[in-house]
Amino acid sequence: MEDVGNKVSVHYADEVLNGILITTEPHIILKLSSGYNIVLDKKKITKMETITKKKDPERKTAPAQQKNNHTVSLLHTGGTIASKVDYTTGAVIAQFSPEDILSLFPEITEHATINSRLISNIQSEMMRYHHYNILAEAIAEEIKKGVSGIIITHGTDTLHYTSAALSFMLDNPPVPIIIVGSQRSSDRPSSDAKQNLLSALFFITTTHWKGIGICMHENMDDENCLILPGLKVRKMHTSRRDAFKPINAEPVARINYEKRHIDLFDKTEKSVGPFSLKKIKEDLRVGIFKSRTHMFADELLFYKNYDGLIIEGFAIGHMPTEKIDSKTGENEKIYDTIKKLCEKMPVAFASQCIYGRTFMHIYTPGRELLKAGVLGDYCDMTPETAYIKLAYLLSNHPKEKVKELFNTNLKGEISERT
Ligand code: DGL
How far is the CA of 237 from the centre of ligand 1 (A)? Predict the structure, then answer.
C-alpha cells in the first residue's frame, strides 16, 4: 500500500484517478486536484502507484524586515488562517507558527515592520471569555509600544464574537485593530488569507481610522476586501470567502489591494478619550435561547441559575406566550417562566431575523414581554453582539445599571436610525 500523503495514481473501475492519498482504512480516500475528496471502494481498485512522495514540512524562517515608517503587531490566535491541510486525516489543523505566516506572505514586510506574537493557537469555537481577556491584554501591551495598528489572525467561526468582545472591552483604541480570518487554509493556492492580511495591513498603514474591524473578502472573487464594523457583522455562510456581511450597518471601507485603492465610508470622528481595558468575568454564565414553535416552558427553566439570558425570538419581538385555544396552554407557562427569569437576571430579546430592528411595543405579545421585564426593544444588535454585550455589562456594572445600559447605544452596536 502507498504511503498516506503521497500523490498517487489509482486505476479504478475503468478510469485512472490522480490525487493525494488521504486515508487507506477502511476505505481509500483521495484528494483530487479540484480540492474535493473522493472515497473509493478497495475492491474496484486494480492498481495504485506513487507519482510523487510526500514532502516533509520544512520550517521556514521569517523574511528579513525592511525599513518602514509603520510598525504593526500581528497577534495570532489560530483558526484556518494559521492552518494547513494534514494529509494523514484530510483535516485542516492549526499548525502554522507566526514566523511561518510571515514567510508565506513576505509582501507583508514591505508595508510595515511586523511584530509577530502568538497569543493562542486554537480553533475559534474553543474560545472562552478567558481568551478574550488575554487577547485584550496583549492588544493593550502592543498599544503601549506605540504601534501604528494591530492585526489579529483568527478562526472565522466565532470571529464576530471576538470582534464584539474587543469592541466593548477596549475603550478609545488609538489605532486600528483589524481581525482577519480565512476560509481556506494559508497553504492552499485558493486561500483568501493573503488578500485579507495584505488588505488589512494596507488599510492600517494608509488611513487614520481607529477602532475594531474585520477584514474579509467582499465577494467570491479576489477583487475587493471590506473592513466591517466589529459590532455589526456576522458570519453568514459556511464556506464562501465572502461569508462575513455587515448587519444593519454599512462597511467601514472597501480595499482594492491590487490597485492600492481604499474607499473609506466611515468618516466619523472617533472620541479621543484615554484608552482603557475592561475585562469580562470568566465565571459568568450567559445563555442564548432560541425560541421556536412548539417549545416548552421548562427548557427556559434550565437558565434559572445563569447570570443573564438572550432570547432569540421572532421578528420584531414575539414569542409563543399567549394561550389562544385548548392546544396553546403551554404558551402561558412560557410567559410565566420568562417573568420569573426576569426577576432573577437580565433577560434580553434579539431577533432571529438578524436584519432589522425590534419593535416590541407594537403588538400585544411583545408588549407583554416588555411588561415582564424583557430588555432589547428598539435594538438592532445581532444575537451574538447582544450576548457579548450582556456578558460585558454584567462583568462591569451592577444588575440595575446593566438593565439600563443594555438598551443604550454604547459603542455603535445599536444603530441610531433604521
Ligand atoms: N474551526 C474554525 C475556526 O477556528 C476554522 C474555520 C475557519 O477559521 O474558518 O473558527
Answer: 12
